[in-house]
Amino acid sequence: MTEELVVEILKEVFYTTFLILLPVLGVSLVVGIIISIFQAATSIQEMTLTFVPKILITAVVLIFMFPWMMEKLIAITNKLFTMFITVVK
């Protein structure tokens, strides 16, 4: 295994991880900003007001995005296993 191959594998794994986490983190960020603006406008400083909607919407996004996430994870896992088999031979 060469150094270039290890760097290429790590680059692809980090990119796939970033791609999988981006929708969930993005939605959570947008919902958090919207709730913060609402709290600032209404002077309501209740902590559960920020936590409950964010966790619910994050769960909904995870449920809807789960098949796509699993497809990406399975694809990279298959690619890594075939790559490792080729390198070991």
Description of the structure:
The structure is a single chain. With 89 residues, this protein is mostly helical. The protein has one domain. It has helices spanning 3-42, 47-88.
How would you classify the helix and strand content by structural class? Answer: mainly alpha
Q: Please provide the count of β strands.
A: 0
Q: What oligomeric state is this?
A: single chain
Distance between the termini: 11 Å
Number of helical regions: 2
* Uncertain segments: none
Q: What general form does the structure show? A: elongated
Instruction: Estimate the helix proportion, in percent.
Output: over 70%
Work out the strand percent.
under 5%
> How would you state the average pLDDT, rounded?
90
Give a brief description:
The protein is mainly α and 89 residues long. The protein contains 2 helices and no strands.
Task: List the keywords.
single chain; 89 residues; mainly alpha; 92% helix; elongated
Helices and strands, with pairings:
Layout: H1 3-42, H2 47-88
Helix pairs in contact: 1-2
